[in-house]
Amino acid sequence: MQKVLLLVFIATAYTAFAVPVAEPEKEHEYSRYIQMPDGEGVMHTVDLEAEPDMELLDEISRDPANNLYLLYTRRNQIVSQTLVMNDANSITRSNFNANRPTVIIAHGWLSNQFTSTNYIIRNAYLRKSDVNVIVLDWRRLAASDYVTATRGVPAVGRGLGQFLNFLNRVTGAAFNSMHIVGFSLGAHLVGNAGRELGGRAARVTALDPAGPLWNYNSNRVNSNDGIYVEAIHTDGGSSAGALGIGMNVANADFYPNGGVSQPGCSTNLCNHNRAVEFFAASVTYNHFVGRQCSNSIQVSTNTCRGNELRMGNDDLRKTGSGMYRLDTGRTYPY
């Protein structure tokens, strides 16, 4: 009898430890008052229970064209050309080339077309290859308080999706040649844009998607928003100051250096911004190689031994799924 019990115990232990099972996602709880950065790195106190500006939200919802779409190409790398929704001439007279890939960049909260996120990614792409880069300036909503901006992100995302539909109708630019990239709040915005396109965009890349007010939010970026959806998490974790969502939201979720703190950084803001810098570096060098992990413990203990998948890059045919860990250096190109 004792031998039977011993065998049962051994079999149970083997099952528990030999077959890794992904852990359930852990939702991070935020205090009512938190510190959030603007596009210049200045921290602002945010009341997560503040009443949203319903008048502004109504305006944003009624007018999806209430944003700027700014085109950069190798023929105009510094000065943009403005593309206007429902104005075909603004597109046909521009340098937009439907035969080239199109990259769309969406900034985060309290930011605009001049925020560093945009030109860091734009310059990486235009130095690498001949593409269309469209910067979405959604400052009308992004300049509002954080609660209002969060509430309006889905509408702006849908507006971006409608604009890309219009671009497709006017020029024939294929959805499978489009890569939509967003940072922080912009990461959830591009998810909604991809959803508006029925998940037909080649890629959606979420750079450290914002955490506050998004843990339980059905409008957050998800794996159905594009043919391939990728998230790069750099400031997750359970600390009170974490700015990123720090949980799986995509087809492939990358956690560089564990996804909580980054080498060379001493603040949450620095960790958060590294997602942009990592992605831009990956477009240039395609040098980040992640190892697939079975659970979040492997991510945090750096014991992932699964398949390899490169983080970031500009490959429009990229595929993959799961969660991945990789280590980087302290300075560019990391």
How would you describe what is shown here?
By secondary structure, this protein is α/β, with parallel strands linked by helices. The chain has one domain (39-326): 3-Layer(aba) Sandwich (Rossmann fold). It contains nine helices and 13 strands. The strands form two sheets. Strands 4-3-6-5-7-8-9-10-13-11-12 form an eleven-stranded mixed beta sheet, with helices on both faces. A two-stranded antiparallel ribbon has the order 1-2. α2 runs parallel beside α6 (146-171) and α4 (116-128) runs parallel beside α8 (268-285). The longest helix has 26 residues, at 146-171. The radius of gyration is 21 Å and the shape is globular.
Features:
single chain; 334 residues; two-stranded antiparallel sheet; 9 helices; globular; Lipase_N; lipase activity
